Amino acid sequence: MGIEVTRDVFRLAQVFTISRGSRTEAKVLTVKITRGGHVGWGECVPYARYGETLESVTAEIESLPGDVTRAALQDLLPGGAARNAVDCALWDLECKAAGKRAWELAGLRVPGPEITAYTLSLAEPEAMRKQAAENAHRPLLKIKLGTPDDMPRLEAVRAGAPQSRIIIDANEGWSAEIYADLAPHLVRLGVELVEQPLPAGEDEALLGMARPLPVCADESCHDRASLPDLKGKYDVVNIKLDKTGGLTEALALREAALADGFKVFVGCMVGSSLAMAPATLLAQGAMVTDLDGPLLLAEDRDHPLLFDDKGVHPPEPALWG
User: Fold this and answer.
1) Between β-strands 118-120 and 140-144, what pairing exists: parallel, antiparallel or unpaired?
2) How far apart are CA 48 and CA 32, in angstroms?
3) What is the pTM of this model?
4) Are 90 and 33 in contact (CB under 8 A)?
5) What is the mean pLDDT of each run of 10 residues along the chain (321 residues)?
6) DSSP conformational letter for 254
7) Quick check: helix, strand or coil at residue 33?
8) Catalytically active residues, by annotation
9) Residues 159-184, buried b or exposed e (16+ Cβ, 10 A)?
10) Phi/psi of residue 269, each to 5°?
């Protein structure tokens, strides 16, 4: 009985760039919990934006008792990558011990495939037009913006993929003035949603600002405690397991957000199919599903998630849950 944590590296299919920098690989932590002859698996992606490193998250996980329960875990660790990996591994362990699927234990309907966004890497406009054209068969494209030269990039993507739906993620890169100036152009180009246009902590400017398209909170939304401060600023909340600290809080956040009148966006960090698998439960009926992490990889876990023209499918038991 115990908890093991290891580091894994997955090569990306191509260099992936956002306004904060570029990467060629995904560095993740894999948690393995062995108990009663069963093994549960979970994955997290430590994120520097939230002060996390592979070392700090590993230390958090290794601080836990080997017999930790999912209920006790919620108080032993704060929300974040460490709790996420352990929480999801405990869900997987419970499924195997009970001989049931995760959605059965959660009291949810049998999940089906959901169309997922596909993220285009930040590049010069012509390169982004080429990326868009190569992926114009995908129904939903996501563009990472947040630079002084965003409009030429957006125009290029629209030219490359005239029929695709488009959402954009500014990654906290705009000021209120820039966003107010850009918003009418986003609408003109058929953008359906903008994610985190202003820095978290500086989003008071969204109060009372005209919102001609839905605005989604990402860095401003972590768990249920975030919701009161989002009212009047955002229309949608982005639920990521690495922010909520696992599926347990994510399910509760989803329910609370919907009850408060928010729509739900289910997102991810760049990780493997093991990281995405629990999030497929959250994605059922979401306004936007953005679980394209495995599509950005050159390699993946055994028994990876299935992606086809119907979207991302729930995991097989051999992967998770």
Assistant:
1) parallel
2) 23
3) 0.95
4) yes
5) 94 81 91 96 95 98 96 98 98 98 98 97 92 96 86 95 96 90 93 96 92 95 98 97 98 98 97 98 98 97 97 98 97
6) H
7) strand
8) 144, 240
9) ebbeebbbbbbbbbbbeeebbeebbe
10) -90, 180
